[in-house]
Every structure is written in structure tokens, then in C-alpha cells.
Amino acid sequence: MRILIVEDEPTLQSQLAQSVREAGYAVDVASNGVDAHFQGDTEPYDAVVLDLGLPQMDGITVLRKWRASGRSMPVLILTARDGWHEKVSGIDAGADDYLTKPFHMEELLARLRGLIRRAGGHASAELVCGPLTLDTRNSRAVVDGQTLTLTSHEYRVLAYLMHHRDEVVSRSDLVEHIYAQDYDRDSNTVEVFIARLRKKLPAGLISTVRGLGYRLSAEA
Amino acid sequence: MTLSAWRHSLRIRLLAGTLFWIFGTILVAGWGLSTLFRQHVEAQFHAELRTHLDQLTAHITLDAQGRAQLALPLSDPRFGRPYSGYYWQVDDMGQGATPATALLRSRSLWDVALVAPVDTLQAGDIHVHQVVGPQGKRLGLVERSVRIDDGPDGKPHTLRLLAAADADLMAEPVSRFNGALWLALGVLGAGLVLAAVVQVSVGLSPLRALRTALARVRGGEAPRLAGDFPVEVAPLVEEFNTVLAHNADVVERARTHAGNLAHALKTPLSVLANAAQAKEQQDPELARLVVEQIGVARRHVDYHLSRAQAAATTRVPGAKTVLLPVVEGLVRVMQRIHAQRDIAITVQPWPAALAFRGEAQDLQEMLGNLLDNACKWAAHRVEIGAHTDGATLTIAMDDDGPGLDATQREAVLRRGVRADEQVPGSGLGLAIVDDLARLYGGRVELLDSPLGGLRAALTLPAVA
Questions:
Q1: Quick one: pLDDT band at residue B99, thresholds 50, 70, 90?
Q2: pLDDT at B422 > cutoff 50
Q3: Disulfide engineering: A127 pairs with which of A162, B117, B205, B444, CB 3.0-4.6 Å?
Q4: CATH topology of domain B321-461
Q5: CA distance A84 to chain B (A)
Q6: What is the predicted ipTM?
Q7: Which residues of B touch A102 (CB under 8 A)?
Q8: What is the DSSP pairing of strand A2-6 with strand A140-143?
Q9: CATH number for domain A2-119, candidates 1.10.260.40, 2.60.120.10, 3.40.50.2300, 3.40.50.720
Q10: Are A78 and A49 in contact (CB under 8 A)?
Q11: Quick check: bond before B156 cis, omega within 30?
Q12: Would you state the pLDDT for residue B97?
């Protein structure tokens, strides 16, 4: 799961990036509206945390432009302006949720999880696939009551596959969604993560669809 | 008309000025015309008497004894009818010594003689007198003297010839004329007064239109003075609209400043809160204190910002907000921010024209907070309904949540009190709504909902 964090205040930006990263997401950051718009327009993010008061281009304009060009990733607006008319204009510009400063980081993470889950059409915070349960609230994967020990990259791959279970996910999709922008990407490493996950998961849960990618499915 | 009415009413000033001139002019004209006519009638009257006198002069002769005789009767029959009002008489002045007796007189005089004042008449002179005639009537009288040097008796005779007529005959057409004259002038005056009233009323009608436009602005039906005004009033209207625009501008700026202040304060508060939480392991006491104090600071900022915004708001006249779009916008927000809670928000239909007399942002604040509360507490359903009784607008928000008992209802309307610390929110929502509603002369009531939970009823001024 890859998240874009747009915040112009440097300290808050690094706090957000750190907390979201610790929650198991790949994180990109942007400090102004123009960069934010470009990144959101070109990279496949699973969610965006968007501050409204941005230099160069305000957040509402950025959001409108994304929506106008068909970008549909969930967007959580983060702003100090807590008037309801601002919430209305934010939601009407295409935001999916709204959080006002000062906020509790746990609440932000909870909202973010909710947004990603709902974007994938999942109602519950716990994603289930056969014997495997993934709790997005605490980034835990459990198989038959046993908690799996996963590295952050393994978790990201598994979480992405869980959010898109029963779908074929291409290797490049996985690369796009588990690495932050500035990370040195190597699609071969994805194969390594998949191999490691297969060892930790019950056999047959992750299948390879030749030439297309991988599929996580309970019906092998 | 009191002095203050005079000073305070343009209509009275204009009418009083016009009426003064109308009545003054009519009086002078009436007096002038009446005098002219009277003089004309008098002149006519005397001219007629002189004609009779000329006839008398022509017909007078002396007989052989030197007595005056009338060769022919005067042609006017009124001289033959007793006390007809037309009289003549011939006096003998003798040699200018003794005043003469009536030598001859008209039959109309019957047994009375005219007594003319003693007078010295040059030959050919005609004198005019007022005398009292038969039956005590006032008479107009003309006289002349005729000197006959060679009478049949060889003596010179001086005769005084008098012709008189009843002065009432002269007064009667004058009074008839005066009657007609004053009637005509009265009608004219009434017409002019009516015209003046109409003129003042038409002339001042732009002011009435201005007052109506102002009332509409004050009543919140229009944001500025609208309509075509004459060039004399238009600059005033323009100035007033400029003031209104300026006022709205000031409020908008105050809002922007308030928002900027919020942004400026809240971002560092967020940074602080996050930093404190990050250090929770090392110094839990400090972290707890910082988080708690940040909460307090945030509540103060929120409270005073909303108060400042509210205070700036209600002074802007002419604000009108149609209810439905505001509710629809808020419902969209609620559906998003409470998306994971699966709550059905129903808007009961109401007339599309229902409108609040005030600013859209304030309505959004009030309804947003109430609706947010309803969604937080609802189990499955939230319903919004509205109705108006003309002057006030009542918006009711129902939820099927646990509701509040009487003490709790009392408590949550007070500043900073939360019904349950478990549900996120500053606890200020309802108190702010109540403050805002009161600024508009409205109120918030917490009641039992037919859905089983709480009903928040917001009463606000409506735009009729």
C-alpha cells in the first residue's frame, strides 16, 4: 500500500511520514501543491493525505485537478480549517474523508485504513482469505491462530494481495504499490518476497498466473 | 402641524409651501377680479343713469310761465312704476340762491322727493352721489345743472336734473359675480391642492421605493439596494451599496483572518501533540500533560474563533440562505466521514424555497454540528425535516441512538461539556450551535425523537 503525504510544514510532514511508514505503508511526501499534483497524477497511490493550505497551489485545486483527470484514489483532507463549509467544499471537490488539526495520529491512521479498505470494497478492518487473517489495524497477519513474523516489505506485498484477493496482480503493480518513489526498485525482489511469503503461508494460497502475475485466493 | 413634524417631514414641508402659495394667489386674484368687476358694474350703472339724465335733459322745456315741463315722458317704463327703483327729479336752483324744491319728479317717486346734497354745479358737470331714497333704500344718483338764459318768462332759469337708481341693482350682479368667482376659484384651488398632493407624492415616491428596498435589505431579502432610482437619489443609493459591500468585505476579511489564525495555531499544536506522543515511552507524565494542554488550547481556539465569526456575521444585513443546498452539502459530507458506520440519512421533503435569514456559513456551522452529533450517536438512521410558520424556520434532526436524559441535555448545551468522552468531538459543538442560534434570535432544543433517540430542533429566523 503506497501513500502520498502532502503537507508543507516540515516537522508535521516528517511526523506523518514516520507514523504512516511505521503502520506498514510505503510513503511518498510532497511539500507544495504543484509537486503534489504531479506525483498524484503520475504515481498509483492507494491513498493520499492532503493538507489544504499549500504553497503554489492550494489543496482543493490539486484535488479537483486529480478528480478531473480521472484519478480516483481515496483522499483524506487534513486541515486546520474546521468550518463545515470548508468540509462541504472539500468533500464536493472529491475528498473521501476529512480530519482537522490538531489530530490524534491513531485517528488519522484509522481513517486511512478505512479509506483504503473501502476503496477495495471491504467492509471490515480484518481481511480474511481462507485460514489467513490480516488485521489492518495493527498490521498483523494470523494463520490458524499463529501470528506470522513479517518484514515491512513482506507485509506490504501481503496487504496489497489481500486487498485485491481473488484478483490477478501483476509484478509491476506490486512494485508500484510497495515501494516509495525514491526507492531503488528491482522487480526481482518481488519474487523474493513472494517466495518468502509462500514459505510462511499455507501452501497454495499464493498462485502464479504465468505471464500475468500472482493471485491470492483460498480456492486454490 | 407641530414644529417637529415640519422639521421631519419633507412631504409636509413641500405641501405647506405649495399650499401657502396656492391660497395666497387665489385670494389676491379673487380680490382683484372682484374689485375690477365691481368697478365695471358701477361704471355701467352710472353710464346708464347718465343716459337717462341725457334723455331728461333733452325732454325738459319751460312753459310760458317759466315752469319746467317734460315735453315727452322718459322712455324707460320703470320711471312710471311707483318705487321701481328708477327715479328722476328736476329741481329749480333759481338764481343760485335758495335750494330748489322738486319742480318735477318721476311718477315712480310717488310722494317722496329726492334730497340731493347741496352742491355747486358748473354747467355741463355731472356729479355722482349716494343718497337715501324712498323706503330708506340707498340710491346711486347723478346730477347735472341746466341753465336756460332766455325762458319764455324772460328770466334765466337754472335747473338741477337728477337721475337715481337703487344701489341694490348695482350690488346684485356684483354679489352674483362674486359668488360665481369664489366658486370657480375654490374649484381651481381644490384642483391645485390635489395636484400638489399628487406631485409631492409622485415626487417623493423614489424615497418610498428606497425605504422598501432598505427594508428588504434589512429583512435579509436582498444583499443590496436594487431598482432604478432618479439621478437625485441614485448617488445616495450607490453610496449605500458601497457601504454594504464594504461591510460584507470586512466580515469576509475577518473570517479569513480568523481562519488564518486557526491554521497558524493548529499546525504547531499538531506538531507538538505528535512529538509528545512519540516521547510517551520516555516521559509519560510530560506527554500526558502536553496532550491535555493541547486539547485545552484547541478548545479555546475553536470556541473563540466560532464566537468571533458569529459576531461578525449577524451584523451583515441582507443575508439569505436557501436551506436545501446547505443540507444536501452537509449530507454528502456526513455520508463520507461516517461512511464506515452505515447510517441512512433521510431528508424529508420540504418546500424548496425555505430559507434562513442569515449567512450560509453560520447555517452550515449550526446544522453541521447538529448533524455530525446525530450521525455519531445514531444506530442506523438519521432524519432531517424542516418547516416554517412564516417568521421562523424550524429544522429537526432525529437519530435512533441512545438519546440523552434531561440533565444530560442541560449539560451538553453548556460550553465544553461532552456527553461521552468515548465519542470523538470537542464537546463544543452544541454550545457553539446554541450561541450562534441565539445571535440570530433563535434557539436549540433537545427533545425526544420519534426514532427513539435524540431530536435536535433548531429554530431560526426565516425569510418569508
A1: low
A2: no
A3: A162
A4: Heat Shock Protein 90 (3.30.565)
A5: 5
A6: 0.71
A7: 266, 269-270, 272-273, 294, 298
A8: unpaired
A9: 3.40.50.2300
A10: yes
A11: no
A12: 47
